[in-house]
Specification:
Blueprint (H helix, E strand, L loop, with lengths): L13 E6 L4 E11 L2 E10 L9 E5 L4 E12 L13 H46 L5 H46 L6 E11 L3 E11 L2 E11 L3 E12 L5 E9 L24 H5 L1 E2 L29 E3 L4 E3 L6 E11 L1 E6 L8 E7 L9 E7 L2 E8 L7 E8 L3 E13 L6 E13 L9 E8 L8 E5 L10 E2 L4 E8 L4 E12 L3 E2 L2
Parallel strand pairs: 1-10, 8-17, 11-27, 15-22
Antiparallel strand pairs: 1-2, 2-7, 3-6, 4-7, 5-6, 8-9, 9-14, 10-12, 10-13, 15-16, 16-19, 17-18, 20-21, 21-26, 22-25, 23-26, 24-25
Helix pairs in contact: 1-2
Length: about 525
């Protein structure tokens, strides 16, 4: 229980934090010792970054108690003069020494540059005098030689000193940056701007009351991160949160809640604009021909934020809320802090997949169900296979209980080579153009001595998909070797090839692209 005395601040610690995509909602709790009537409390300190309009105070007591006013009061304490150098730490003395040496070397470099320019001008004047004297028939070769040798020697000494100064300046810049980073981590300057809460309370009688105070602060954010460990038929997925905050105060043992709600975005509906559709008669040239073109289109939608900078949180369009299972401490240092959220182990179904048109590598893909009890947000995944790191991948948004596909990198003992042949023909009667493409794939498995067991490779190729009736694409299954397992609506052809250790296999895909005489562009 806390009471107010003039000139003192009652402690108001942070007990709960809801971290949003680019800010945080902070909750503070304490117990006040109220007296009958109106009473004023000074609570804090609190961060000066508190958003004033979001400040909300609420009292809970056995008797009637109301909050009449709550406001943030900020005080500025200017930093005094620099202390005596003898009282500085070793890092600060090192920064001072490096800065002084850097300033001295820059002045020396300026003097050397000026001297080099003077020597260049002197050499130019000497060469001009030689040219003028030679033209008038006056020659003095010994004196010219002595003067040119003296200028060249001076220019060589100046250039060598300049190179030495530049080298030392570059080394000083690197060392000074390293020492300044160490100083930033080891020593923190006291803040100049501090804040506290002035609370005015009216109570019907004396007694304790619980105070809950909440507000928003900027300079805090979080992003999801994962760690996937692939074992023998099982997969363990750990869900973590990377939390950054530079709010000016540490969070010690707080209840941490992570939300993808975007409270700063406006909720206004989009404006409806007029969109007119008009019919235009085709010209005679357009009636006589059908213009087509080949284009690449990625299957599926791209979600998330911009490819540059820190990506946003992809929550599938619905706000998600995650909670840390225990108290969390996050320092106000602007560095990433990893907070464990959940972990589960489930059975996985591995597949060795390859798309030779995109890459000649064969990748191990693990398929499993999301058993975490919450949605998996899009984020980076640290991949672990065979007890060692297999790199880093990306996990897309996955609802609870839905299937997940996670690639664990390529298999170095497999190779795929791809060769394409194309033959163009025109029929005599209908004048239709027929393009026959033959795709040949060569699969190889280079196994270590003593390795046993076949490995099934899921091989995928694609057919062009026609959007106009004048162009037809047909798969010649009788010419394919072996016949494809399936062909989906996007034109993806799939085989399952079994390769023994040291085995090789050849796959052939043949299809025709047939177009009428009016079609141009193929």
């Amino acid at each position: 229980m806390t009471t107010s005395t003039p000139g003192t601040l009652l402690p108001l610690p942070v007990t709960a934090v809801t971290c949003l995509e680019d800010r945080a909602q902070v909750e503070r709790t304490t117990v006040l010792d109220l007296t009958a009537g109106v009473q004023r409390f000074r609570l804090g300190p609190v961060t000066a970054l508190t958003v004033d309009r979001t400040l909300h105070a609420e009292l809970t007591a056995d008797h009637t108690a109301n909050v009449l006013d709550a406001r943030i009061v900020r005080t500025w304490t200017p930093r005094g003069p620099m202390p005596d150098a003898a009282g500085d730490s070793a890092l600060r003395r090192r920064v001072h020494a490096l800065t002084e040496e850097q300033r001295t070397l820059r002045l020396r470099r300026d003097r050397l540059l000026s001297r080099r320019d003077l020597l260049d001008g002197l050499a130019s004047d000497l060469l001009r005098d030689i040219a003028e004297a030679t033209g008038s028939g006056d020659t003095d070769a010994p004196r010219w030689t002595r003067e040119m040798d003296r200028v060249d020697d001076e220019r060589g000494v100046c250039g060598e000193e300049l190179r030495s100064v530049d080298s030392r300046l570059s080394a000083l810049d690197d060392e000074l940056n390293l020492v300044q980073q160490s100083l930033l981590v080891a020593e923190t300057e006291p803040p100049e701007l501090l804040g506290h809460v002035e609370l005015t309370v009216e109570s019907s009688s004396a007694g304790p009351a619980d105070l809950l105070l909440s507000h928003l602060v900027p300079c805090a954010l979080w992003r999801p991160a994962y760690r996937a460990a692939l074992g023998d038929g099982s997969l363990t997925l750990e869900t973590d949160a990377m939390v950054w905050q530079r709010t000016g105060e540490d969070w010690n043992g707080v209840r941490l809640t992570l939300s993808t709600a975007r409270s700063a975005l406006a909720g206004d509906p989009p404006r409806l604009r007029e969109d007119r559709l008009t019919l235009v008669d085709r010209s005679p040239e357009e009636r006589r021909s059908v213009q087509v073109e080949l284009r690449e289109e990625e299957v599926g939608a791209i979600r998330g934020a911009s490819p540059t900078g820190l990506p946003g949180v992809d929550d599938g369009g619905e706000a998600q809320v995650l909670r840390a299972p225990s108290g969390v401490s996050v320092r106000s240092d602007g560095r990433a802090h990893r907070v464990p959220l959940s972990a589960f182990t489930t059975t996985e179904r591995s597949e060795y997949a390859c798309s030779p048109e995109l890459s000649p590598l064969i990748t191990q893909v693990a398929r499993f169900d999301n058993r975490s009890g919450h949605a998996l947000l899009a984020g980076p995944v640290d991949l672990v296979r065979g007890g060692g790191s297999a790199g880093r991948g990306r996990l897309d948004f996955t609802a609870s209980g839905a299937g997940v596909e996670l690639a664990f990198g390529s298999c170095d003992d497999h190779r795929v080579a791809r060769h394409v042949e194309e033959k163009r023909d025109t029929t005599g009667i209908t004048q239709r153009t027929v393009i026959t493409r033959t795709v040949t794939l060569y699969l190889s498995r280079f196994s270590a001595p003593g390795e046993q067991g076949d490995r099934v490779i899921a091989l995928r190729e694609r057919l062009p998909v026609s959007e106009v009736s004048a162009v037809e694409v047909s798969l010649r299954k009788e010419a394919c070797s072996p016949r494809p397992e399936s062909v989906d609506a996007e034109g993806i052809v799939r085989w399952e090839i079994s390769l023994p250790p040291g085995g090789r296999h050849t796959v052939t895909l043949v299809y025709d692209i047939s177009a009428g005489a009016k079609v141009t562009g193929l």
